């Protein structure tokens, strides 16, 4: 039986919550890489695996701080992912999505529910019409994603997706999904 969309989630005022991090990060400024048009380009020798692991020339990048730094200069140009600085634009191979949403937290209920996601590189984003949850694939290959920024998505990890499944309710037109930021996101394919 599906839960009612009006049941409140069990949120508490926890300073370690994703919502507290979201609020603290509101003034965080990332480099303005969309404006950069560097003169040099080439391959970076880097790859992001489906599980979110970053590699350089086949070796796993061991330092999380380094991965977080690279993530701040990651951009998607057309269908290519690139690392951008004011002087270089280097291609990077991305097997699926560049990030993985490893945690999710809910606040509120019904159409007022809010969902915050934390990625494997420490970004915290709130799902909304501007940062939608979407599905790609078919059948057993159906995979959920959330938009992090500027056409860069995070694959929602299995554990986080199971938490979302616990929050599902019947929405418009009888579809099963979740509400966040006033928008409803179906978590099943129609038909």
Describe this structure in words.
The protein is mostly beta strands and 191 residues long. The chain folds into 2 domains: 18-25 and 98-186, duf1285 protein (duf1285 protein fold, Roll); 33-94, duf1285 like domain (duf1285 like fold), CATH 3.10.540. The protein has 3 helices and 15 strands. The protein has helices at residues 18-24, 64-72, 158-166; strands at 40-48, 54-56, 59-60, 74-77, 80-84, 88-94, 99-107, 114-119, 124-126, 133-136, 143-149, 152-156, 169-170, 176-180, 183-186. Strands 3-2-1-6-5-4 form a 6-stranded mixed beta sheet. A 6-stranded mixed beta sheet has the order 9-8-7-12-11-10. Strand 13 (169-170) and strand 14 (176-180) form a beta hairpin. It starts with 17 loop residues before the first helix and ends in a 5-residue tail after the last strand.
Count of discrete structural domains: 2
Q: Total number of β-strand segments? A: 15
Query: For the report, how would you describe the main beta sheet?
Result: 6 strands, mixed
| Main β-sheet, spatial strand arrangement | 3-2-1-6-5-4
Which quaternary structure do these chains form? single chain
CATH architecture term of the largest domain: Roll
- N- to C-terminal distance: 20 Å
Shape: globular
Low-confidence stretches: 8-12
> Can you tell me the CATH topology of the largest domain?
duf1285 protein fold
Question: Secondary-structure blueprint of this entry?
Answer:
Elements: H1 18-24, E1 40-48, E2 54-56, E3 59-60, H2 64-72, E4 74-77, E5 80-84, E6 88-94, E7 99-107, E8 114-119, E9 124-126, E10 133-136, E11 143-149, E12 152-156, H3 158-166, E13 169-170, E14 176-180, E15 183-186
Parallel strand pairs: 1-6, 7-12
Antiparallel strand pairs: 1-2, 2-3, 4-5, 5-6, 7-8, 8-9, 10-11, 11-12, 13-14, 14-15
């Amino acid at each position: 039986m599906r839960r009612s969309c009006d049941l409140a989630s069990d949120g508490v005022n926890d300073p370690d919550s994703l919502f507290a991090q979201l609020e603290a990060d509101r003034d965080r400024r990332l480099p303005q890489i969309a404006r950069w048009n560097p003169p040099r380009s080439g391959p970076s020798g880097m790859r992001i695996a489906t599980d979110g692991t970053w590699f350089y020339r086949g070796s796993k990048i061991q330092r999380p701080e380094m991965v977080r730094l690279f993530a701040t200069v990651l951009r998607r140009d057309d269908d290519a992912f690139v690392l951008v600085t004011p002087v270089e634009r280097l291609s990077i191979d991305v097997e699926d999505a560049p990030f993985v949403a490893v945690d999710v937290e809910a606040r509120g209920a019904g159409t007022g529910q809010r969902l915050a996601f934390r990625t494997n590189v420490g970004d915290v984003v709130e799902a909304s019409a501007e940062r939608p949850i979407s599905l790609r694939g078919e059948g057993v290959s159906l995979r959920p994603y959330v938009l992090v920024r500027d056409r860069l998505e995070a694959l929602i990890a299995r554990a986080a997706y199971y938490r979302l499944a616990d929050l599902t309710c019947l929405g418009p037109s009888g579809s099963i999904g979740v509400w966040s930021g006033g928008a409803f996101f179906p978590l099943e394919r129609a038909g």
